[in-house]
Every structure is written in C-alpha cells, then in structure tokens.
Fold this protein.
Amino acid sequence: MSQAQRIVRRLPVTTLASGCELALVLHEIRGSRPGPVVGISGAVHGDETVGVEVIRRLSHAVNPEEMTGSLWLIPVANPLAYEALTRNTPLDMHNLNRVFPGDRGGWLTEKIADTLTREFLNKVDAYIDLHGGGALALVDYVYILNDEGLSRSFGSRLLYRPEHPYEGTSNSIARTRGIPCCTVELGGGWTSEESYVQRGLRACLNALRYLGVIRGEPEPPGRQVVLREIATIRPSVGGTLVPEVGANMITRTVPQGQVLARIYNPHTFEEAEVIRAPFPDNAMVLLMPDIRRVNPGDYAYMVGNMATAEVYE
Ligand SMILES: [Zn+2]
C-alpha cells in the first residue's frame, strides 16, 4: 500500500495575553517512497510574503504519489510578524532570524525559534529558507552556504558566497547539523510579486529535483554570477528616497558613481544625501523599486562587486 499522504500539524508555541494560542502550522507531504525530508519555511521575516505564496502553490504542485521522501512546509514561521507586516516580532521587537536556536524560557521570539529548532530544523534532512525584500525593497539573489549545487539549482542570476554567514539564523541550525541548506532572497517591495511567486515556485520544484524528491533532471541554471563581496548601503539620514535606478535594473550592472537614489528632507526639500554605486562595476542585488520613506540605517541598496565575482556561463 502506498505511504503517500498529506498531514497538517500544529506546533504549539505558547498562549498570548489575548488568550489566543500561538502555534506554527506544518504541512507534511509524505511521498510514496522513503527518502529525504526537505523542510521549507517562509515568513521568518513577517513582511516577506513571496515565500508564503510560493509554499502554498508548491503544496498543490507536487503529487505525493510520485515523490521520494517528504516535504515539511512551514509557510509562516513568524505568524505575529506576518500579521503585523513587520520584519521583527511586534510584541518583543526581536528579529527571529538572529535568535536561533532560541530559548524555551526566553523572549517570545526565542520561544518561536526554539519550537522551529526542536520540531522542524532538527528533524529535516535538507532546508530551504525563503526570504524577500520586505515591505520596501526588491531583492533577487541566493546564498551559497554548504551546498553550491542546491543554491545554483534555483536558477537565480546572482548568488552570494558570504565569508561569514550571519549567526543566529534558521540556517545556522542546518549548517551546524551539516544538512544541505540554502537561503533564497526573492521579490518584495510590492512590485510585481506575481512574477516572483511564479519564478520562486519553478525554482523550488527544480531544487526538489536536485534533491531527488521529485522526478526528473534539474534544469541547468544558465549564466550565473557568484558574488563574494556585497556592500550594504544604508542611508545615514531619513527622508524621502527618490530612486534613479529602477526595478528593471535588479540583477543588472551599473558603473561606478552611478546615482542610485537621492534622499530629500521632506520638510525643507533640501537634498540630504546622494547614494552612488561604490564599485568599478556593480551588480544590483537589492534596490528600492520606487519612491520610499526611509529611515537612517534601513536596507536601501545591496550592491555586488563584479571585480571579485565568479561568472559561470
Ligand atoms: Zn528575510
């Protein structure tokens, strides 16, 4: 008899002051043949909605009768931040993606991380973490962490091989356990999310072919650029940011000194800051796709240095 089935489980976290029970919802899609358990999470940051919709469509796109192994899907890893459309958890202001492995006796966000670590990250054989640019910015790249083939199978044009990956991320648990893992940064900034969702779904299906969960050869990724150096450009002052490089330039290159945006003081109208491309040749990793209110220190631009990049044709 086939083992294929779909199960929805609730992972309890705690009871909120409102009396509402906080739980994470895990969709287990068990294939007909034994194989790896691939975990995929969305909305570790609550304002990154592309991954949530990619996971919903992925759950319908796969047929467990034809799968080897299982999918464990957590579409909304931080429900309170998703509800509030905020990067961090509004009740304690912590960033879930800096507090792993979490703490059962700690802050609320640490409790969520602890539940994810114990009930999800410690039990999967591969892990894919879906992120996006959040409420303001548009982003398009994939991290290379410990399985370059997995990262490249997403087919994104830009990849990033960080020398020192962030600690406290959900992926830090996967790296410590030595299981293949990958963080995908896709979409955001409320620009044409539909096209990014469609791309994200295709990319996840290709990654599942690479991991052997669904049948077929993975599609070759095409031309890819692996960045080793990314400059994160944060405004030193707040104000109204008016971009001079549009959303169509995401993943493309711009020359040194190119004005990326001007920030105006909204009260006095004076030009408070000009943001320029820093490298001789700059790959646009993250950008502001439209006029935005920015605060000092926001993620305004991420720009890759093409001079130190590896190009795969
Ligand atoms: Zn994120």
Q: What stands out?
A: The pocket of zinc ion is lined by residues 44-45, 48, 131 (CB under 6 Å). The first strand starts at residue 5 and ends at 15. DSSP finds six helices and 18 strands in the chain. The chain has two domains: 5-222, 231-303.
